[in-house]
Automatic annotation (TrEMBL):
<feature type="transmembrane region" description="Helical">
    <location>
        <begin position="6"/>
        <end position="22"/>
    </location>
</feature>
<protein>
    <recommendedName>
        <fullName>DUF2065 domain-containing protein</fullName>
    </recommendedName>
</protein>
<keyword id="KW-0472">Membrane</keyword>
<keyword id="KW-1133">Transmembrane helix</keyword>
<dbReference type="InterPro" id="IPR019201">
    <property type="entry name" value="DUF2065"/>
</dbReference>
<keyword id="KW-0812">Transmembrane</keyword>
<dbReference type="Pfam" id="PF09838">
    <property type="entry name" value="DUF2065"/>
</dbReference>
<feature type="transmembrane region" description="Helical">
    <location>
        <begin position="42"/>
        <end position="60"/>
    </location>
</feature>
Length: 61
């Protein structure tokens, strides 16, 4: 299990690093926009992201 968790973490880092590598100014603009959002909107986005992730994992597994 620890090996799969390490692989998942490594893939997360790779995926998270794609946008700042390819488009640093766009990434900075996106972060600025996100930092100005309300907490409620961020919670909704976070929940939807988690729900989609769970659904994808369920479908794959």
């Amino acid at each position: 299990m620890w090996e799969e968790l390490g692989i998942a973490f490594a893939l997360l880092l790779v995926i998270e690093g794609i946008m700042p590598f390819l488009n640093p100014s766009g990434w900075r603009k996106t972060l600025r926009t996100v930092s100005e959002m309300d907490d409620k909107d961020l919670r909704i986005i976070g929940f939807l992201s988690m729900a989609i992730g769970v659904i994808v994992l369920y479908i794959i597994h």
